[in-house]
Structures are given as C-alpha cells and as structure tokens.
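User: Teach me something about this protein's shape.
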Amino acid sequence: MSSSNILNAVRIGVNHMPHEAYIRRDGEDWAGVTNQKERKKLQNRLNQRARRQRKRQYCSRSGALSVSCPSITIYSRGMLRDVTEENIEQKREVLLRFAKEALDSYATCQPSADHLLSLIQLNVINSLTRNSVILGLEGDWLVCSAVSPFTYSGLGHSIDTYVVRCPENLVPTMLQRTIPHHPWVDLFPLPRMRDNFLIAISMDLSGDEEEQLWEDLIEPVQGNDWTGMIVWGEPWYPRNWEVTVPFLRRWSWLLEGCGEILEATDHWRRQRGDRCIRLELFDLKDRSQ
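Assistant: First, the predicted structure itself:
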C-alpha cells in the first residue's frame, strides 16, 4: 500500500460535539475540563440552555406563540438569543421590518395592542445601540461573543478621548477598564449601575443568573408583563430611564447607589398617574429577595 493510500485509510473526520451548539461565550466548553465539579457545573449550564431551547421550539410548533402579527412571534420570543456575526444582519433586518410594520399600523389609525411590549423592547435595543455609537464601539453589541474594547490592552483610544467625545455619565469607569466583559454593560448611562453589574457578573452571579439578567434587560417579556427597563428620551441621559417593578423585585440589589434612576422612575410613573415606588419594599442591599 502506498503512503498516500495509508494516509487516506487512517483519515478521521472531526465533527463538532453536540453540546457546542449551546456555547455562547468563552469558558463554557466542558470538553477537556478535568476538575469534576467545574465540569459538572458547565454541563448543567449547557443542559439547561438546551432544555429551554427545546421548550421554545415545542411552543412554537404547537402554536402557543401565535399572535396576529407574524413579525412579533419572530422578534419578541427569543429572537436575540444566539446572535452571531453570521446572523446579526438578518436579526437586525427583522427589527427594522417590525418597526416599519408598527409604524404603518399607527399611521393607518389601526395600532395593535400586540405591538406594545415589542415596541418597548425595540426602543430599549435602539437606545443601547445609539449609546454604542456615541461610545464609538466597533461591531454590533448584540453579538453574543462580543467583548468590550475598554479592557483591551491595545485600546486605540485613550479614556481622555471618550471624556471629550461622549457624555460624562457614559465614560468608562475604572472597573470597565479592568474587568473583561460583554459590551452590553457599557451602554447604560449610570456609572454606578454599570459597576454594580460588573461586580455581580464577575463575583456573585452564576452563568444562568447572568443569562437571566440579560434576558430581563434585553428580552424582558413574561406573558403580558414588561419586566425590564423603559426609555423615554435621549438614552445617554439617566433621567430618561425607568425601572419596572418586576425588575426591582428580582434585581433591586443591583441598583444600590443608583438614586438618579429611581427618582426618574417615580417621575415617569407620576406622569402617567401611577403611584411612586415604595423603596422600603425593596432592600437594595439584599440579593436574596
């Protein structure tokens, strides 16, 4: 047998392992991890993610997610999970189509109640995207594998550049320049809240809890309730943001020291005739509630 035949005979195809389809960020692949406890933790995380995906697919097939507007089904139910460099343009196109559809329905005096929660979500996404443009971030912040440039050792712009170019409350904090993180953290206009997020993500939150925080901020629709934040104006201005009661119930401890957004929340609630939030019901230092 010739040497070329021998090489062909022993050639083995290398395929991706099934669990790799559910990996969203570096450090989640359990293959090659020898520590049994850490390996089990990573396996559980990916298994739970796989179960949630199968559940969403089942609900979609069974018609449980059907609504009057097809684009809402695509957009408001997990559309922003598993965003990659390869599919981000397609997902952004869905957002644009939905925005046009909602605008058309409003222009024809036929606004759909089904649009409301998705419009609030779209406004949050567009607001964070605008802040990313103000910061001069390259790439799309929705991509799951994205990493904030502020912790790069070879950052092309000094912090002084950001001080001059963007509003003071968007200038990266020392923690943002120290702790590697996804760029979604950089886009909220309250420095203390960004630092609280980073401390929690790097020290307190499990992988599943971090994923839950992302979903509550970016895709926060549970039934007919909005569980995240609302933006009422220019996104770089903290007083244009409002936190919802469901968000406070789960994450109030992440808003310790963020009095400005809590005051803004009461302002917007008064504008529509709602009662002010009773902060004594939320212990801003207790993450167990």
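Now, about its shape. Confidence is low (pLDDT under 50) at residues 6-15, 61-76. Strands lie at 221-222, 225-226, 229-231, 241-243. If you'd like, I can walk through any region in more detail.
User: That's plenty for now, thanks!
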